[in-house]
UniProtKB/TrEMBL annotation:
<keyword id="KW-0663">Pyridoxal phosphate</keyword>
<feature type="domain" description="Aminotransferase class I/classII large">
    <location>
        <begin position="32"/>
        <end position="392"/>
    </location>
</feature>
<dbReference type="GO" id="GO:0006520">
    <property type="term" value="P:amino acid metabolic process"/>
</dbReference>
<keyword id="KW-0032">Aminotransferase</keyword>
<keyword id="KW-0808">Transferase</keyword>
<dbReference type="InterPro" id="IPR050596">
    <property type="entry name" value="AspAT/PAT-like"/>
</dbReference>
<comment type="similarity">
    <text>Belongs to the class-I pyridoxal-phosphate-dependent aminotransferase family.</text>
</comment>
<dbReference type="InterPro" id="IPR015422">
    <property type="entry name" value="PyrdxlP-dep_Trfase_small"/>
</dbReference>
<dbReference type="InterPro" id="IPR015424">
    <property type="entry name" value="PyrdxlP-dep_Trfase"/>
</dbReference>
<protein>
    <recommendedName>
        <fullName>Aminotransferase</fullName>
        <ecNumber>2.6.1.-</ecNumber>
    </recommendedName>
</protein>
<comment type="subunit">
    <text>Homodimer.</text>
</comment>
<dbReference type="GO" id="GO:0004069">
    <property type="term" value="F:L-aspartate:2-oxoglutarate aminotransferase activity"/>
</dbReference>
<dbReference type="InterPro" id="IPR004839">
    <property type="entry name" value="Aminotransferase_I/II_large"/>
</dbReference>
<dbReference type="InterPro" id="IPR004838">
    <property type="entry name" value="NHTrfase_class1_PyrdxlP-BS"/>
</dbReference>
<dbReference type="Pfam" id="PF00155">
    <property type="entry name" value="Aminotran_1_2"/>
</dbReference>
<dbReference type="GO" id="GO:0030170">
    <property type="term" value="F:pyridoxal phosphate binding"/>
</dbReference>
<dbReference type="InterPro" id="IPR015421">
    <property type="entry name" value="PyrdxlP-dep_Trfase_major"/>
</dbReference>
Amino acid sequence: MELLSRTLARVKPSPTIAVTTKAQELKAAGRDVIGLGAGEPDFDTPQNIKDAAVAAIAAGKTKYTAVDGIPELKQAICAKFKRDNGLEYTPAQVSVSTGGKQVLYNALMATLNPGEEVIVPAPYWVSYPDMVLLAGGTPVTVEAGIEQNFKMSAAQLEAAITPNTKWLIFNSPSNPTGAGYSWDELKALTDVLLRHPHVMIMTDDMYEHLAYDDFKFCTPAQVEPALYDRTLTVNGVSKAYAMTGWRIGYAAGPEKLIGAMRKIQSQSTSNPCSISQWAAVEALNGTQDYIATNNETFVRRRNLVVKALSAIDGITCPVPEGAFYVYPSIAGLIGKTSAAGTKIENDEIFATALLEETGVAVVFGAAFGLSPNFRVSYATSDENLVEACKRITEFCAALK
Ligand SMILES: Cc1ncc(COP(=O)(O)O)c(C=O)c1O
């Protein structure tokens, strides 16, 4: 009998975590490494949120909680959906988990049967297809390339739907591209979904608050209220409040689904950390002022990176609407050879050569299902970004 399950054999470890680990190892070995792989803000968690956590500890709020969230946090989440998205939910429609990742995982585990399909627009956040596989379903990827600004069209969605489609996973602004769907672009997709009542929508709104210039965030149940009963709206505090380590994510949707997700959580992790839940109450109910301040920093960095990478011969770098990533194409560099003699045959080789020859860590596009590209996270200091872009420029200039 094999030790490991057959399901696990279908799944790969997270490549973004692998890049971060490799960069850390090189750094520990004394190499001068600049990591542009991290999927988290470099800002500290705001003080009012930390204070709420300390107060929770002092008040002894350190025990098991209700499985899918304390009532105070569920109330804060309902208020957030009303305030930011115009969506009405009751606490019974809300689930809180250990990060947005667990929310998505619970939902897929609770709903997928063998043979059921999940549409995943590519490039996608690395975990979606593997989570679908772990849950026993079949990911169906739909490629949305740079020429369509990495956004799936209505015709592509229509063509991907089959009688076996259970979910569409939607993510805007996106990891890894930063692309955000406008109201009209999203409406074109929701119009398709209206014609296919068996398809559910899992919208991952994790980067909602990281929206720049005149881009206005919108979410499917808001754009098409008729999809309210078919939508799981997923969000979390990790990115907007610089709380990645606190591990709080949440979702709202149909009570039956929320109940099934609760059942899974009750038999796996019981409840999200009590202290983090109290911190999240403060994040959602307290001042939101620092989001705008952080976004000014992100916009400055985005512009810096887009300008530097766009100036490189062979690289095309669109300007994204949100998140803290850019996803440039290296189509013009494929087939060239680096100064150290590496032939750039694909984006994985490009990223490896870049790391080894210049110490700049990025994540290769194949990890996100769309090549030849790489992902830069600009959630690091301006100084790091300037130096990293200089090294990337020199590396590319030396390609023959
Ligand atoms: C698109 C997207 N969804 C979900 C998550 C998971 O967030 P959390 O850290 O809350 O689990 C991430 C984290 O990188 C993400 O980029």
